[in-house]
Amino acid sequence: MPHLTALSPSAAAADWLHQRQHDMESALSHWVAPQAPADLQATMRYAVLDGGKRLRPLLVLASHEAVMQQHPQLAASQVAVWHDTALRAACAVELIHAYSLVHDDMPCMDNDQMRRGKPTTHVQFGEAAALLAGDAMQALAFELLTPLAEETGTPESDLTPPATQAALCAILARAAGHRGMAGGQAIDLAHVGKRMTQAALQHMHTLKTGALLQASVRMGCHCAPHANAHPDPRLLAALVQYGDAIGLAFQVVDDVLDATADSATLGKTAGKDAANDKPTYVSLMGIEAAQAYATQLHQQAMQALEQTGLPDTRILVALADMVIQRRY
After folding, report:
1. Mean pLDDT, to the nearest integer, of 21-31?
2. DSSP for 61-101?
3. Residue, of 160 and 132, whose pLDDT is higher
4. HSE-CB of 72 using CA atoms within 13 angstroms
5. Which band of pLDDT confidence, cut at 50, 70 and 90, is reported for residue 8?
6. CA torsion 254→55→236→316, rounded to 10°?
7. N or C: which end of the chain has fewer CB within 10 A?
């Protein structure tokens, strides 16, 4: 783990991002479907490996590491248990995100041909294979959150505590289901070609995009020793406010990029929202107002971090900056 106090904020963030992205790729490569039938394994790995910003898993790991600063006297063996817990949670979030992209890109949804700079999964492998791979990735996410001693070869004492496993599963399920990502997508599909108020648009994106980003921060907070597996309510509330703000900011920036960037830069088809007559922050507010709103949300995220009381939140600050400054 990088020693943050020895680095300037920018150097610490760059070093941390590089190392954690490497950790994520290694973990996903190790855990994604080694025992699956060959065709299914190939489709799953195509969908989740070697692409994407990894923002959601990075938020899990950043939140985890920030909260672990409250436990400097923890034994090395216990630090390792909680690090493994956080890495599993990070991979689980990315698997849910990747499965949602596979399904969203299919002809029955958004009918997209390019994702992360390469053909979408259904274009590459066919619709049936893509659908099945998405289903399998969703299930694998929850497998990772509930490791078994006999499968991992790890003593029970070195596994994630059962209460934490249950909490992580509950957070992720709610963020992915009807009260989160799937619910937001249903609202989105129902409003193609229809006008929405800013409040209705914000509600849709709070579910569709924001719920999983907020859950990432929440899950990272749970990946640390807490009394009865429950984090301090004030700390958790502040981190949730941070996650809510950057979750919404991510979507606002996404709408701006869809209207202003080209397909090569985005790694996906540009201008799809306008072509499909979907309501967006740009169509509702205009580009300049949407950019200003993203900046306002970033400021809200910074204010929330100040309320956490954590000694070092520079990585969480850097991830919020990345959301606002991204170009793809």
Report:
1. 95
2. HHHHHHHHTT-TT--HHHHHHHHHHHHHHHHHHHHHHHHHH
3. 132
4. 4
5. very low
6. -100
7. N
